[in-house]
Design a protein that fits this description.
The complex is a heterotrimer of chains A (362), B (224) and C (258). Chain A has 362 residues and is α+β, with helices and mostly antiparallel strands. Chain A has helices spanning 44-52, 98-106, 118-125, 140-152, 170-186, 198-204, 222-226, 337-343, and strands at 9-17, 20-28, 33-37, 61-64, 67-70, 83-86, 158-162, 191-195, 207-212, 215-221, 240-251, 256-261, 264-269, 278-284, 288-291, 302-313, 319-326, 329-336, 350-355, 359-360. Chain A has a 6-stranded mixed beta sheet with strand order 6-7-8-3-9-10, sandwiched between helices. In chain A, a hairpin with a 2-residue loop joins strand 4 (61-64) and strand 5. Chain B has helices spanning 4-37, 43-55, 58-69, 74-81, 91-117, 120-127, 132-143, 145-161, 164-170, 180-189, 193-217. Classes of the chains: A alpha+beta (362), B mainly alpha (224), C alpha/beta (258).
């Protein structure tokens, strides 16, 4: 058996609880953010805990970037795995100050293995002003930032995040997301990110594993996987694609930004990103409508020529989901079955995709 | 007022209670930890044995200890074969008996404290590279501090108040086994009610102060 | 006078008791008497009470305890009507303090002291084993509290052995506890009541030296009628019964003199 590629995370677990079976065999990239996405009860947290060694998984195998953490012969207990773990509710030790919480993990890492300094972690999460406080005197968002910084300060070779935003309300989520993005951009630590929130995944992940009933039903790069027609049902209202784009121009008069993506370009609301800056945009299937010819005299800003690839029945019998190719990129559109019929949809057909809304994901 | 033998009894009692409490904190910690964490089917049985002194009349415990630690009892055989002689009528014997007798009052508060801590701090510490032993000292003990305070106070106070057991195995030897509670009993039996009142009042005051300290130093409801 | 005042006080309480007792007394002459009994006399008293109930038709309710405790309970209003103490001081004291009926006091048994060991052959028919002093612990009842303890100390003093063995004393709070120390072997030997180790005119087990009565002042166990039992015919009957040959035979068979 293959035990540990030189790079990447190889995880094979079979955990049989009465009434629930986690059975996965995954090859995950050794860099970037991998989302473990699924509904509650799909087994994503159990998988994360097994990877951390918190869930006993006899017979499991795990290798991280060439280092075996667990197989038939080896079982490293959690404290001997160089990982960082961010819990759903920041598990700060109540008897220690923020500073002491941060130092708790760091001082237990041999000096030679320290790559992230305390100052760096503090700066990254912007918690310098909180160091003297006790956890009881922090807000939920502050606690979670300290929790993340504490995990980073151990210079982990793998960062595991278990729905770190789930316990926070929308505003606090928005407060934390930028920090997570900085993490993504500034540190070269592979992250496994458990989430059931499509917007978080769309914004943060490079790679996605879709979990259902204890199995991984999809595993691939985010953009490709989101456009797969056999999966969207699980995403519900949030079916859509994510495109990696670059700002190419800014229209100061109308406060719009012009963005290129592989195979086309879009106008989006200008959010101050400079020209040349890469950014993610997300286009939901329900915001895309189709026409046989380019429509004039419409309020819609973005119309892209697109080739029909395939279509599939959607969650509701009245609806259908259409996969389209725009240059090298993919797009999903949600139509009523009746409209699809009127358009006489066939694979290879050229249509015009009218995009009502584009979300710029920072 | 208090006589010399009363003072000697008070000193001996404090010594007995201190030694017993200290020993119990050491012995009780692993027992409490095991009881708090185990899923073993033996948990119920061990927990019940620890709790026995709460329900058994002290004289019953004292009598069985007297038999067990006597020259023909199993404990007595063991101590004799170890060259320690037999324990009844010695200070060590009182300590052993008190450890057994006050055990639940130390183990249970610690066990409750351990249980209240829950799983998450242990898991968090493990993800921060702390070994289980390290976790115990750096996380569990500090978080269980209120439980330890309660355990120490209850263990100490309960040993001070112990009477039936001491009566059975002590032999009322001055400076060795004649503790305050026995001394009070002697005064009452000898109809020296004045001295009995004095000693009893001191014990009541002592117990009150101890419990007062416990309740003021140990505010409840401190969780994360 | 102190006694006079107590009697006056008690005179007020009595009518109520008398009223309660009347129906029984007049109906069948059968009344009930509540008896506080020193723990060491528990076994013979149970036999005696059974005989008494059979012969008289009265009922005797027995409560056992140490004499000191019974004394404290009586002083604090316990409803006992007769006390069978383990000593002669307590009944005298109760009488002086007005809790007992004047002139009702008498010696119902005389305790015999024995030096006893649970091991057979350990104690010979003399105090030789005390002279040798090869034991670690000598069980003795607390001499301040228990008449048998005081008698033991007196005996040792007469024998000139007190200084030699005093350091080996282990004290029971009462004679029953002292017996436990010796019976479990924790003390190799000890001074106990003969009644504890004696039945049917012989030793139940172990070895013993019955201490001659001349070596200590007699261990008188006195009985007294308490003020609450003054008007109770069953109390009077019980006192009478304790003085019969029938009762004496029982008392003797349990290792007491009288």
């Amino acid at each position: 058996m293959n035990s540990g590629n030189a790079s990447g995370i190889r995880a094979r677990f079979r955990i049989d609880y009465s009434g629930f079976l986690l059975d996965v065999d995954l090859d995950l990239p050794g860099r970037g953010v991998t989302a473990l996405f699924g509904h509650s009860g799909s087994g994503k947290t159990t998988l994360l805990r097994a990877i951390a060694g918190l869930e006993p998984a006899p017979g499991g195998r795990l290798a991280v970037n060439g280092e075996v953490w667990q197989d038939e012969a080896v079982f490293r207990p959690t404290w001997q795995r160089p990982l960082g773990y961010v819990f759903q509710e920041a598990s700060l030790f109540p008897h220690l100050s923020v500073q002491a919480n941060l130092q708790y993990g760091q001082t237990r890492v041999p000096a030679a293995a320290r790559r992230v300094s305390l100052d760096q972690a503090v700066a990254l999460l912007d918690i310098g002003h909180l160091l003297g406080r006790k956890p009881a005197r922090l807000s939920g968002g502050e606690r979670q930032r300290v929790g993340i910084a504490r995990a980073l300060a151990t210079s982990p070779r793998l960062l595991l995040m278990d729905e770190p935003l789930a316990a926070l309300d929308h505003a606090l989520k928005q407060e934390i997301l930028p920090y997570l993005e900085r993490l993504h951009d500034e540190l070269d630590i592979p992250v496994l990110y458990v989430s059931h929130a499509p917007d978080e995944v769309a914004r943060l992940a490079d790679h996605i594993v879709v979990m259902e009933g204890g199995h991984a039903v999809a595993n691939g790069p985010l953009t490709d996987t989101l456009a797969r027609l056999d999966l969207p049902i699980k995403l519900g209202e949030d079916v859509g694609v994510v495109l990696d784009a670059v700002v190419t121009a800014r229209d100061e008069e109308w406060h719009l930004a012009h963005m290129d993506f592989p195979g086309g370009h879009l106008w989006v609301r200008d959010q101050g990103l400079p020209v040349g800056h890469p950014a993610r945009v997300r286009i939901l299937a329900r915001d895309v409508s189709l026409a046989r010819a380019p429509v004039t005299g419409t309020s819609i800003l973005n119309t892209l020529p697109a080739i029909v690839v395939d279509s599939v029945a959607d969650a509701h019998p009245a609806l259908t989901l259409v996969k389209l190719r725009v240059g090298e990129s993919l797009l999903l559109a949600r139509l009523t079955l009746r409209s699809a019929h009127a358009l006489e949809l066939t694979p290879g057909q050229l249509l015009y995709a009218q995009i009502k809304a584009v979300a710029l994901l920072g | 007022m208090l006589g010399d033998s009363d003072i000697a009894a008070i000193v001996l009692t404090l010594k007995l209670a201190s030694v017993t409490t200290l020993l119990l904190l050491f012995i009780g910690t692993p027992i409490a930890w095991w009881l708090a964490r185990t899923r073993s089917p033996w948990k119920g049985a061990i927990g019940a044995v620890v709790a026995l002194p709460i329900v058994l009349p002290p004289t019953v415990i004292g009598f069985y200890l007297l038999v067990a630690m006597g020259p023909n009892g199993p404990v007595g055989q063991l101590t004799q074969s170890l060259g320690l002689g037999v324990l009844p009528f010695t200070f060590s014997g009182l300590v052993v008996a008190s450890v057994f007798y006050s055990m639940p009052f130390v183990v249970q508060p610690i066990q409750n404290a351990f249980e209240a801590i829950g799983e998450w701090p242990l898991e968090a510490a493990a993800t921060l590279r702390a070994s289980p032993l390290d976790t115990f000292f750096s996380v569990v003990l500090p978080l269980a501090r209120p439980g330890y305070l309660t355990a120490s106070v209850l263990g100490f106070a309960h040993t001070v108040g112990e009477f039936g057991v001491v009566l059975m195995i002590g032999g009322n030897i001055p400076d060795k086994t004649r503790v305050v509670s026995v001394q009070i009993y002697d005064h009452v039996e000898a109809m020296e009610y004045g001295q009995a009142h004095w000693l009893a009042a001191i014990m009541v005051a002592f117990s009150f102060v101890v419990l007062l300290l416990l309740y003021t130093l140990n505010p409840t409801g401190r969780r994360r | 006078m102190h006694i006079g005042r107590s009697l006056v006080k008690n005179a007020f309480r009595l009518p109520a008791l008398a009223l309660l007792a009347t129906p029984f007394a007049s109906a069948a002459l059968a009344a009930e008497v509540s008896v506080a009994v020193a723990a060491n006399f528990a076994a013979p008293m149970q036999t005696i009470a059974a005989d008494f109930e059979k012969d008289s038709g009265h009922k005797a309710q027995l409560v056992f305890g140490s004499t000191g405790k019974l004394y404290a309970q009586i002083r604090n209003g316990a409803p006992f009507e007769v006390l069978l103490a383990a000593d002669n001081e307590t009944p005298a004291r109760l009488e002086k303090e007005g809790f007992a009926v004047d002139g009702s006091r008498f010696t119902y048994a005389i305790g015999q002291l024995a030096l006893w060991s649970a091991r057979s052959g350990y104690v010979g028919d003399n105090p030789g084993v005390l002279r040798q002093g090869t034991f670690r612990h000598l069980g003795i009842a607390n001499p301040r509290l228990a008449p048998y303890g005081a008698a033991a100390v007196e005996t040792l003093t007469r024998l000139g052995l007190l200084g030699k063995v005093e350091g080996k004393f282990v004290q029971g709070e009462n004679i029953a506890q002292t017996f436990q120390f010796v019976a479990t072997g924790n003390a190799e030997l000890g001074f106990v009541a003969l009644s504890q180790v004696y039945a049917d005119d012989k030793l139940k087990g172990g070895s013993a030296w019955v201490v001659p009565a001349r070596l200590h002042s007699p261990i008188r166990q006195d009985a007294v009628v308490l003020v609450k039992g003054k008007e109770n015919p069953a109390a009077t009957a019980l006192i009478k019964f304790l003085k019969t040959d029938k009762a004496h035979a029982v008392i003797k068979s349990y290792g007491y003199a009288w």
